Amino acid sequence: MRRALLLVSMLLPATSLAGEGKWMPQQVLELGPGWVKQQGFGLPLDRLWSEKAGGGLLSNAVQLPGCSGSFVSAQGLLITNHHCVVGILQEHSTPQANLTKDGYLARAAVDEKPAKAFRVQVPRAFRDVTKDVLAAIPKDVDDLGRFKAVEAKQKALVAECEIQPGTRCVFGTFDGGRFFTITEFTELTDVRLVYAPPGQVGDFGGEVDNWMWPRHSGDFALLRVYEGGKPYQPKWWFPVSTRGLKPGDAVAVLGYPGVSFRAWLADEVAERQARFYPQVRELSAEWVAIMEAEGKKSPEVAIATADDLRALLNRRKNSEGQLAGLARGRIVEGMREAEARVEAFAKKQGLTDAVAAHDALAALHQEKLSTWDRDFLLDTSSHGARAFGWPLLVARRSWEAQRPDAERELGYQERDLPRLRERLERDQKRYAPTADFALAMSWLRRALALPKAQRIETVDTVFGGLKDEAAVAAKLKALIGPSKLFTLAERMKMFDEGVPQLMTRKDPLLDFALGLDVERRRLRDRREAWAGRALQLRPRWRAAVLALAARPVAPDANSTLRVTFGRVRGYSPRDGVTMEAQTSLAGVLEKHTGVEPFDVPLKIREAVAAKKPARFVDPRLKDVPVDFLADCDTTGGNSGSPVIDGQGRLVGVNFDRVWENVANDFGYNPAVARNVSADVRYLLWLLAEVEGAGDLLKELGAD
Known about the structure:
The protein is α+β, with helices and mostly antiparallel strands. Helix 19 (about 455-465) runs antiparallel to helix 23.
């Protein structure tokens, strides 16, 4: 039955199933007030979004680094997930005062902790630029030329948009090039930590509970955003609901979901199942083991690796869940059936161009597979050890600096340099030499084991002639030892030097990175040509898919603002098992073992034992609610997304999906499509009964 429901969701338009669809604000307007009312929202449509007003409640979903968030007061107070601010906690932690473990509460404004390299982007305008982009593509251009034409227009549109100070503009590509948008943001860089609960609240259950239900995690944190030295005053913010919700209530999740793959071909998804996720799982598990082993030897290493470790743990379990979901739902098989249905429709309607585009996309995919292993390792060369990541960043920045700004690779233009400098500075505290060396060796071991036809030339030149792993380790130490890349001041100097200057340094590690970067740029060039071909093909295929649907369909996630509507509801993960939609504080204490990841902080246990007046008890649960489920359509990037009720009040903060829903990125299955959110009443209870934070409660309207 579940597979049948999943197949139905692949074949039918997105409007046919409640909960399905990551809708653009413009699409919400097109769907109309009647449709929005059917989702359980009594708000006038123009309160959700108004082109004339340049926003609405939907624009109170703000973009954070890798996460979403929302304002909850007129004084710039912002709520997001605890796991979205681990980097800030790490920044201010020491072995004597480990905020990642103990949490933090600023009792006054002067106690708020500043966050380096943490930016908040508040949306203020959206523009459809499809005509401009398509008009910029010359006729009869080759694949690479097509990509370059679109990229050049993207850069020009973004540069024009960012003339106004304090503005960040983001270009969005939808349906593989069927249409394009520009989102204009107000960018705010003065962000300070106000409250984060202890790690054993914000990450209660750790990897044991990650992606699972029932959950009992208080995965929330409060930040304050400043502008000109004063608290930022947002145009919109969400009032916090103290009434909460119950099963069946309407909710919406607003945010910036990163990427989904429902518009992909079945062959492309099969590659994820057969190659990508197994490799990610294996590599992540190896790097997790390295960090955990080194962290046990030193509290300094444990602090330095905390943020990276949590990300790797999440990536490993996500890949496991994707593989389980792809197999359980027979998603690839279902997508093949869906494609066959579209092909039959296209042939019947005489849309031969769409069928030809489908076949050409399939051939393009096969071309990419010929160098898959090598390309995967080149991609991961900068993701693990900073012994490789730092010099690769410096090398690419220096190479791109030789070119006019408009011709530089995206991510290395003048507009990007402040972020890159902040990253180089911020990551100094994330560097742990022993763990980093082991990560570098892990990558080299894999690179040296590549098949003959896919060897990485630079790796072979430097390491290929060595007899055994001990010799490889000795050579790596010889590269790292004399390098000045690990000194922040020197690394920042290198960042602003040209390639000739870098070469005169005769830094062996930097020379290795310069060689490796040549091969990474060759891969980039091939991918740009592939992308240019897809820009021509995928919109033609998607036109047939949408013609068959004959209704609005939400495009795949691409880190642009979306809203998904749903209802609070439980689910049945397997035969004979029913999961309730809400958890409570009693469940937190039931899981308490006194050992991580189920070690409930003493002050919480004392507050419960004291039976303090609980203003935030749910009348149905007769307890303080902790987390809840809904059938909203979410994915990575929705972490920290505000969850609002039908009246536009904040009721929770999204932070996860259930295990059976991890493969939701490939297809929506209404039977198990459940997102997990922290109930805002748990936050209020902690502030009131555990922290005694009366001023914050007052600001949140819950005193």
